[in-house]
Amino acid sequence: MLRIGIYGGTFSPVHQGHVAAAKAFMEQMWLDVLYVIPTGVTPHKAMDGEVTAAQRLRMCELAFADVEGVIVSDMEIRREGKSFTVDTLQALSGDDRRLFLLLGTDMMLTLGSWRSPERIFELCYPVYIRRESDQALDEEIVQKIAEYNQTYGKVVRRIVSDPIEVSSTEVRERIRAGQSIQGLVPARVAAYIEENGLYL
User: Fold this and answer.
1) CB 175 within 8 A of CB 181
2) Using CA atoms, how far apart are residues 171 and 189, in angstroms rounded to an integer?
3) Which of 18, 43, 129, 130 could form a disulfide with 159 if both were Cys (CB 3.0 to 4.6 A apart)?
């Protein structure tokens, strides 16, 4: 039984927090393969129109080039229309594989409102990672996990990792302000952003 991880997102741009989360996910869930899947058209938030899907894909390829076991996939970019997680899970499912879906805290808390949540829980084991150290969310997280367990019969697991409090929004804002992004994104990604004049 192959253990396959799925890590989707806009990745605009991909940053060190994404890479650290992916590595922790692979290690703690004993994954054989991790698919990093940049979103095509996201149903959750507006995309930065200045950066193309192909450029976001390329930045992911550069960021994960040296991480063994990672496959950067364009499957959601190639798919027409909005990118729904349930469709991606369906495409990757099979009798010989067990799927694990990595979520940030905000996405985990809203998972029940996504398209076909019952099917999502059938197809995969959701896993979340804290990307913030705000303890105010602790009670809400516990309640939501209990609710999912009661409704869908699956426990949402947690990746234990020190939060890397960097966001794509912060990176974009620093670029526009002419500030350094060194250390916030992988060096190859920083070079690609500069070479292509992205987020200015």
Assistant:
1) yes
2) 12
3) 129
> Among candidates 161, 170, 169, 182, which has minimal Cα distance to 23?
161
Residue 45, Cβ neighbours under 10 Å: how many?
Answer: 9
Which residue in the block uniquely carries the two structure tokens 């059938």? 122
- CB of 1 closer than 8 Å to CB of 10: no
Mind listing the pLDDT tens digit for each residue in 65-102? 999 999 999 999 998 778 899 999 999 999 999 999 99
Rounded distance between C-alpha atoms, residue 102 and residue 153, angstroms: 18
Tokens, residue 10? 């806009």
The pTM score is 0.92
Nearest to 83 by CA among 71, 75, 94: 75
| β-strands 2-9, 70-72 pairing | unpaired
CB proximity list for 127: less than 8 A, separation 6 or greater? 25, 29, 100, 101, 102, 103, 156, 157, 158, 159
Question: Is 3.40.50.620 the CATH number for 2-166?
Answer: yes
- What are the extents of the domains in the chain? 2-166
**Burial of 59 from C-beta contacts in 10 A (0-12 / 13-18 / 19+):** buried
Residue pointed to by tokens 């070479």: 195
